[in-house]
Amino acid sequence: DLFGSVEPLLPSLREDGVAVWVLGAGPYPPGVVALQELLDAASEELQPEDVWEPEDMNDTCLYIFTSGTTGLPKAARVSHLKSVMCLSFYELVGASSRDVVYLALPLYHMAGSLLGVVGCLGIGATCVLKEKFSASQFWDDCRSEGVTVFQYIGELCRYLVNQPQRPGERQHGLRLAVGSGLRPDVWRSFQQRFGPVRIVETYGMSEGNVTLFNYTG
What we know:
The protein is an alpha/beta fold. It is built from 10 helices and 10 strands. This is Long-chain-fatty-acid--CoA ligase.
């Protein structure tokens, strides 16, 4: 869906030696790799470890786009080691394989992809992916999907608190909300209105090497 935005840049990307992969059948211009054809032709047998195992866990695994807090969004290098460490994120905040995690964050950001999706893989939890966050649909989604854990950024909780009150707002199975940037006043309002949901506030940076957890609330 986003290839049209990249297509005008193809000549300069080729000059810089940047490969462009697209998930879709195509057709695409020369030099663009259509991943769907390769996936369809790929064997289901796992290759030997020396083919896919990184030579150095500190080598680049992927690039994550930061939020742009200090300027325009920019790509931050994420190592294989840091990606593997994200497997333990939900375990650190008290979730388990029995949980159903609601995720409506963008997957090009570290919170959505590595902490969210990879974190669910790490504990074997069910991940409910929402294409776009909707404050008006949130509690209905939680009830219909059996959601027990919600990963937020601070503004998402504010959107929920600012919604008009509706019947059944406390009739849900949500027990844990985890994320970053929740203001104290919104924190209090969220719990007063929606029930005794445990909140674990965390803070880290895509390109940083320290993460903080507020376990005490």
